[in-house]
Amino acid sequence: MMISGTTRILGIIGAPVAHSRSPLMHNRALDALGLDFVYVPFPVAQERLSEAVAGLRAVGVCGFNVTIPHKVAVVPFLDRLSPEAEQIGAVNTVKNDDGILTGFNTDGTGLVRSLREDLGFDPQGAKIVLVGAGGAARAAVHALCTQSAGQIVIVNRTVDTARALAEEFSELFPKTVLVATGALSTRHEETDLLINTTSVGMDCVSLSADPAVLAAGAAVYDMIYAPAETPLLAAARVRGLRCANGIGMLAAQGEVAFTIWTSVSPPEGLMKAALVGRI
Ligand code: NAP
Questions:
Q1: Cα dist. 166→23, 63, 107, 175 in Å?
Q2: Ranges of the chain whose pLDDT falls below 50
Q3: What is the number of the ligand 1 atom nearest to the C-alpha of 90?
């Protein structure tokens, strides 16, 4: 990669951002296509978000990803939102068109693509248990409802947040049955898929949702990708259930963002291969 006077800048803002694998996968894809862009990490503290967005606009970066803790907080500093980002209320991708900043949310699309590719799972009509009600859960519920999921049981430690999410999206998507609860107490024999959207498991702590409540044909998806096998996925594997971690979602949301910025699709499978160290 040669940086010259014409090189265009992409990046990611977050706090922390040093652990992010997005620079690796985006730069590999830019290189492979010979595009004159570079993707760089920008550590941005919470209290400096407005200055950072103004600075990125001022220097004319082409676009940037947004990660924890800025996905919701960045919204007031943007000029426009895609319909998905507007309904989800959070942004993970920003495109700069001559100083006009548009926010997108590609997490939900990334999840649905990964469910299809990594688990062979089609959400249409499916019965899903989704643990968590934060930003990632909102994107997931939005995408699963858009794909006509039959029923989603939202399980969250703070049950009021789950209730509010279920009520809000029930109005937008009346064909999907949305239910909220504070714990998975009974067996969920009819559940087709359990998804963890919380950060529980990153530190190898077990999630309270146990795959033992599922029937043998169910699948388990954990949005966490480091560690590659959380206690939830280990328990699912021991039970012989189909399971996948969030690496496919990370790659797929990145592919959509890459195309938004460059109008070119990255080579198929390249970002995921970069993430798992195959290239
Ligand atoms: P968030 O908005 O902060 O939401 C966190 C959620 O986790 C909330 O529902 C919270 O429950 C729950 N939670 C946190 N600690 C808990 C605990 N000790 N016990 C039970 N529940 C707990 O975060 P987010 O943006 O949704 O991200 C969540 C996870 O998704 C992170 O691990 C992130 O890396 C991952 N993610 C992965 C991808 C990917 O591409 N693979 C994309 C986006 C996000 P309360 O409401 O009760 O606080």
A1: 34, 32, 19, 13
A2: none
A3: 25
